[in-house]
Design brief:
With about 170 residues, the chain is α+β, with helices and mostly antiparallel strands. Helix content is about 30%, strand content about 35%. The site of coenzyme A has 19 residues, from β4, α3 and α4. Coenzyme A binds next to β4, α3 and α4.
């Protein structure tokens, strides 16, 4: 059975293995994932199928930007893509962020990551939420260069009913 549940500390190595398979997600240290599990477990969820972690979504509530939650990473094992699980993970994050007081959910996406762009637009459209581009993020130093679109979803109403595999 496939379930979505909050992260536990014992998930960390399995999450890193999953993230490693989820290009273009950044592959961070075990310590980074520990920080997420220890301080941000209310906004970090795994998708688990019979004990195997096959999906992950993680983010934080901003303490500087009013009522704003930020999705840091989302990834699915390739055999679980295009089946509605991304929609279920995003919905879990958004409803949890709302219950923590968020009225905005923001994230950044590589402009060439069509699957991710489509997944988030599909989610917002299904829910009737406003989705807008806030700007372009450009980060560059001598080690790396990155350009991402900053996007915001405003979940103005509480959703009714579940969203996900086999559900509208
Ligand atoms: C992003 C991710 C979680 C989305 O999961 P998913 O199950 O593919 O999402 P959905 O099925 O809800 O939506 C994806 C949409 O993109 C489409 N799509 C997938 N790959 C595509 C591609 N290469 N080109 C164009 N469209 C593509 C799908 O057909 C689907 O659209 P549709 O429902 O209109 O047919 C998943 O692709 C993933 O884990 N990617 C690797 C990690 C990643 O990129 N994370 C996001 C970083 S911002």
């Amino acid at each position: 059975m496939v379930v979505i549940r909050n992260i536990k500390e014992q998930d960390l190595k399995k999450i890193r293995s999953l993230v490693k398979e989820c290009y273009p997600l950044g592959f961070h240290t075990l310590y980074t994932y520990w920080v997420i599990s220890y301080y941000f477990s209310s906004l970090t969820f795994v998708l688990e199928d019979e004990g195997t972690i096959v999906g992950f979504i993680s983010g934080i509530m901003s303490v500087d930007k009013p009522a704003t939650a930020f999705i840091w990473q989302i990834g699915l094992k390739s055999s679980y893509r295009n089946k509605g699980y991304a929609q279920a993970l995003i919905d879990k994050f958004v409803t949890s962020a709302q219950s923590l007081g968020a009225s905005k959910v923001q994230f950044t996406i590589d402009p060439e990551n069509t699957a991710s762009l489509k997944a988030f637009h599909k989610y917002a459209n299904k829910r009737g939420f406003k989705i807008e581009k806030k700007g372009i993020l450009r980060l560059k130093d001598k080690f790396s260069e990155k350009e991402e679109i900053l996007i915001s979803i405003k979940p103005h109403i509480f959703p009714h009913g579940e969203i996900g595999p086999g559900k509208p």
